[in-house]
Amino acid sequence: MEFLYTYETLKLEFPLSEPENADFVLLGVPFDGTTSYKPGTRFGPTLIRHATLNLESYILDYDVDIAEFRIADIGDLAIAAGDAGETIKRVEETIGELKSINPSALPILLGGEHSITFGAVKALRPESYVVFDAHLDLRDRYEDNPYNHACVARRISELGIGEAMFGIRSGTREEVEYAEKHGIPWIHARDYSFDAFVELVEPLPEPVYLSVDIDAFDISLVPNTGTPEAGGLRFWDVIEALEWLVESKEIAGFDIMEVGGSGLGDVTALTAAKLLFYFIGMKGKP
Predict the structure, then answer these.
(1) CA distance 212 to 274
(2) What backbone torsions phi and psi does residue 44 show, to the nearest 5 degrees?
(3) Cβ distance 122 to 92 under 8 Å?
(4) FRET partner for 244 with CA separation of 20 to 30 A, picked from 2, 28, 198, 281?
(5) Rounded distance between C-alpha atoms, residue 286 and residue 281, angstroms
(6) Strand partners, 95
(7) pTM of the predicted model, to two decimals?
(8) Which residues pair with 188 in a beta bridge?
(9) Please, are residues 166 and 187 in contact by the beta-carbon 8 Å criterion?
(10) Under a CB-based contact definition with an 8 Å cutoff, are residues 119 and 91 in contact?
């Protein structure tokens, strides 16, 4: 099937399914139009896909081979360069197209700056939004743009969707006050624990949209991202949380955002690719 805004690009190397028959559908969104520090997240989808060439499709932890799963890759979104609002709209329409032909498919977005998550959430309308991120992203506007990457959680909150945030270590006083006023719980990276994760997420209604801004991780794992911050989470801390989440809650969609870099084999992309394979493995295992 052809989608209105997508085009062919580098894809995973193992056999892929058609989107109308797939359980998992990948979409790259190569956009960094509002990036405010390090550019390069427009290369994220390509870098992640290329990094998967370094990985075995067999996941030791789950005794599954994801090459045997029904996975589709519909390529990359034809973004509107420099226009976050239009790009978000195209994401929303593309996810809408996908769900119209295959309601049971789980969309997985590869990015790309975090602003684009808003388009997927608008299309899927989950009950809850769980995010791993270094930043609160609760600004009303940044650089006079309500669709800036620093505003994504604010826009999602305004849809009436419950939120919980983990790995946070940066934000403004106004963002903290907004979170308190609107009952948005978050855990600082230095206070993060698995028990704290479960305590905040367990009461959330389903389905849940899960987003991982790659800057949530320790900076040694993700040196090339739009707004890197020291003091992040360990890889296995996030994996443990995701394992509990996919076993305990219905997942509406998943994304890995803010992967940057300019060269193949980038450390940040390798971290993202491993996360991608683990998520598909844990979600698809019997």
Answers:
(1) 13
(2) -55, -50
(3) yes
(4) 28
(5) 10
(6) none
(7) 0.97
(8) 168
(9) yes
(10) yes
Give the number of other Cβ atoms within 10 Å of residue 186's Cβ.
Answer: 21
Count CB neighbours of 7 within 10 A.
12
Omega of the bond leading into 207 within 30 degrees of 0 (cis):
yes
pLDDT in tens, 245-283: 999 999 999 999 999 988 888 999 999 999 999 999 999
Is the distance from CB of 189 to CB of 168 less than 8 angstroms? yes
Range with the poorest average pLDDT among 25-39, 49-63, 190-204 = 25-39
CA 174 to mean position of chain CA atoms: 25
Domains belonging to the chain, first-starting first, are 6-284 (3.40.800.10)
Contact 281, 64 (CB under 8 A): yes
pLDDT digits (tens, 9 = 90+) for 11-28: 999 999 999 999 999 999
Range 232-262 burial, b when 16+ CB lie within 10 A, else e: bbebebbbebbbbbbeebebbbbbbbbbbbe
Report the residue count for the chain.
Answer: 286
Q: What band does 2 get if pLDDT is binned at 50, 70 and 90?
A: confident
Residues ≥6 apart with Cβ < 8 Å to 148? 34, 36, 84, 115, 139, 141, 142
